Amino acid sequence: MKKISLYISFMLVAGLLSCEDKLEQAPLSDASSANFYRNAADFQQAVNGIYAQLRRYPDRTFDLSETRSDNVYGSSSTGVREWDPVNDFATTLENNTLVAEAWNNNFNGIMRANTVLDRINAAAVPEEPLRNRLEGEARFLRAFYYFDLVRWFGGVPLYQTVVSPAEALNIPRSSVEEVYALIMADLNKAITLLPGTYSAADRGRATNWAAKALMARVHLTRSGPTYGIKGPGLNVNEYSQALTLLNDIINNGPFSWVSNYASIFSYTNENNPDIVFDIQFRKGGLGLGTTLPGYMGPPAYFNAIPGIPSGQSGVEMREISTDLLTAYKPGDVRKAFTIQSGFRDVNGNIETRSFYRKFLDERDPGLDRTDWPINFPVIRYTDVLLMKAEAILKSGSGGSQQDVDVIVNRVRARAGLQPITGVTLNMLLEERRLEFAGEGHRWHDLVRFGRVIEVMNTWLPKEDELNRMAESINPNFVIYPIPFTQLTVREGLYEQNPGY
């Protein structure tokens, strides 16, 4: 039984959810907040509320990473869906609701984490192991939200305590380096405070292994190219630091290889040994489930399946790119599991386009389109292994070519493919694409590997059958613009990212 999903239900009942389309740095009510944080149970519920802000994360990775990348051709039939400008590389994205959601949602999570960190103390939570764990979770999640922000926007305002709206008006954007400093300080502290495992009742909370894996990803991202912009890559060569963390997870962590690819994502096999950190969902109404499986699929598909509740899907198909479809080799079991390649609608018409089905199980649809009961993997053990291969290839040390080949061939064998030798960075990037399709890694991988401009400028003219996307992109498109609503809060407080 997945207790972690109660984070969301608690927030609905307790009324601590702040508005999703508005950044509220100050507590909702100073008096009510002061009265609320009185004992350990209050702080546990408050930490649950920080997790609750992860609810939109799976959709966001689909909108801003998969749809932005060469995995998805997301031009809608009318060209006016909110994801169209993301897909098309429009320069007007400062007004886009999906971009604004990424900013607001993450900062609301940061505000919740700051509220806990500001108030937690020995008087309210006398049991030191619990107090340490709660602080560790808050620090892990604050780092998580800031890492999401720095990858999307570059430098952002740093809030290390709860501030009032008036105080927030005087806090400018910090540099990328300063944001990373807070992320890494929080993760280092979380590693010392968090336990390695939890009982079944608390399964799904961040562990010290999750903090180490996220820190390794931070090191790899920081080590990526700068592209001449103020984005997530700093070219700092921290591959040895990443390797140390990844080897620790591999050698000492509680994770292990799952031999069947489909079982990693099975509704009946959640929290399996491949999961290092995921976002927990369950069906039952009240927003406990995830929207992602239906969000990825078109209404016509779901309407043709008996037993699927009406309105179970998103508004329109975002089709899988031809380039991704043809990237899978014959016999690769991941393709059929990950992608629904066409279907027949309720009227018997044949749809030839494809969409992601990786998180979809038609046998267990939940009550409505917001209620799919499948967890979303953020960091997998397979990812830890492939990040190790990346660090070895990037650094040229800490391991051998044979080590890299062994890792990649283990992934390929599970997919039903023959082994290869002499794996290069480009080959590794392609293997990551096929392994993690639909999981929101693709855009970040392209950026981190230094290939995003080359790959996308080759892909755009080939795939854009409706002739809506930009003819080419430049490094400014590595990150998104600061939302217009933030630019107008106080004139001159934030400077817009170049190119928008």
Automatic annotation (TrEMBL):
Domain RagB/SusD: from-to ranges: 352-500
A GO CC term attached to the entry: cell outer membrane
InterPro entries: SusD-like_N, SusD_RagB_dom, TPR-like_helical_dom_sf
Compartments where located: Cell outer membrane
Superkingdom field: Bacteria
Entries under SUPFAM superfamilies matching the protein: TPR-like (SSF48452)
Matches recorded under Pfam families: SusD-like_3, SusD_RagB
Record protein name field: Carbohydrate-binding protein SusD
Organism field: Rufibacter tibetensis
